[in-house]
Write a structure and sequence with these properties.
The chain is of the alpha/beta class. Helices cover 49% and strands 16% of the residues. Helix 11 crosses helix 17. The radius of gyration is 21 Å and the shape is globular.
Length: 390
């Protein structure tokens, strides 16, 4: 069968790559064309049937990954151009199904178009209508043939709204447990990156350029202040470079940091696994950090106008998936003005020095993992999609 998959950001690329592995393993004639990133493209290049020649990567997600109301308005023309390009490509390729992965601003437009054009539409990683813009539920009912959800707290929500769904667990469990980072020793990680055998604090500034430009000033000041404390003078601070970015996106802040701060690309999971603590931009990375059992604090800072708008429309109590799963603060969230170097120093010191505090967090991590329903989610979703296509 012919599968047209659309992922618009780093987390979608990760989940899309694992879904593609499942589709290839269970459909010998799978032909996949996609909007995504390096991970999805790697799976395509190693798994694609050589006799099927017109699939592959159409557009890399870095061309359209944006966040915040102001940035969306600023780049509306480019987004609409990509929507038109996607519609035209779907019509020309004629897939058996269009599979949309999160990325609702773009994918809802494609869902409506594909449905009206007569294509099957599956939505994988449900849009976060439980957090904001609940009116989109009607679009899910109208334009989506099968909705695949990945969080346990979504089950009662979509049931209460009368939206049919399929739940097979969360694919991030597989992505972490089968990762190279889980298999590699700390010694091998340090040697491979020419790093000293000193404690690590992980810094994740997000995957979008806008996130990096707002997070990095705070993170660089935090690293400097933390390093100035005698007890932490030997610590190293590792910035996990986003897969769709390059060194120039971080350079304005790296130049003011000492040698104790290093930027590594393609090593996010390894950095998380080997860190004593982590400062995480809100998103999928915070849930990855849970699964790697690394103590964390989540931070978010955005444009002032975007924050004001978000406060008015977002309905959930927490911004982190782990906290949402437990419906309590397993780890702290520092948002907007609360996200500052002094607050980070205080919290990260507590994560490292207060053993009872750390152990309570790790106990909550174990409960979060338990609620994610174990391994095999990606393969189970792929099997369900194939079955539903007949």
């Amino acid at each position: 069968m012919r599968y047209y998959i659309i992922a618009g950001e780093a987390s979608g690329d990760l989940h899309g790559s694992n879904l593609m592995k499942g589709l290839y393993s269970q459909d010998a004639k799978a032909d996949i064309r996609f909007w995504g990133g390096d991970l999805m493209n790697q799976v395509y290049e190693t798994s694609q049937n050589p006799s099927l020649t017109d699939g592959g990567l159409v557009v890399h997600y870095k061309e359209g990954a944006i966040m915040g109301f102001v940035e969306v308005l600023r780049k509306a023309g480019k987004l609409l151009g990509n929507v038109r390009r996607c519609k035209k490509d779907i019509l020309a390729w004629k897939p058996d199904v269009v599979i949309l992965i999160d990325y609702p601003g773009f994918n809802f437009k494609i869902a409506e178009f594909a449905h009206k054009a007569g294509f099957k539409v599956f939505y994988y990683i449900a849009p976060k209508v439980w957090a904001s813009r609940e009116g989109r539920i009607e679009k899910l009912k109208k334009y989506v043939d099968k909705l695949y959800i990945v969080f346990p707290f979504e089950i009662p929500y979509f049931q209460s709204k009368g939206v049919p769904f399929i739940y097979k667990g969360n694919p991030l469990v597989d992505a972490v447990d089968s990762s190279e980072a889980m298999l590699e020793t700390r010694e091998a990680f340090l040697q491979r990156n020419n790093l000293p055998d000193k404690p690590i604090i992980a810094l994740l500034a997000g995957s979008r350029k806008g996130e990096i430009s707002t997070m990095m000033p705070i993170l660089s000041q935090f690293a400097e202040r933390m390093h100035s404390i005698d007890k932490y003078a030997d610590f190293q601070f590792l910035i996990a470079g986003a897969p769709s970015r390059d060194k120039s996106d971080y350079e304005p802040w790296l130049s003011s940091c000492g040698s104790y701060v290093k930027l590594l690309f393609g090593q996010t999971q390894s950095i998380l696994k080997n860190a004593e603590a982590a400062v995480i931009n809100s998103g999928t990375a915070s849930l990855e950090t849970v699964l790697f059992n690394t103590p964390q604090v989540v931070g978010y800072i955005g444009a002032r106008i975007s924050y004001i708008i978000a406060k008015r429309i977002i309905k959930v109590r927490y911004i982190s998936l782990g906290n949402l799963i437990l419906d309590k603060l397993a780890f702290r969230e520092l948002i907007q003005d609360d996200f500052n170097p002094d607050a980070l120093v205080e919290e990260v010191r507590r994560l490292i020095e207060d053993k009872d505090y750390k152990n309570r967090m790790l106990s909550d991590y174990a409960e979060i993992r338990k609620r994610l329903a174990g391994a095999g989610a990606s393969d189970a979703v792929a099997r369900s999609m194939i079955d539903n296509l007949g």
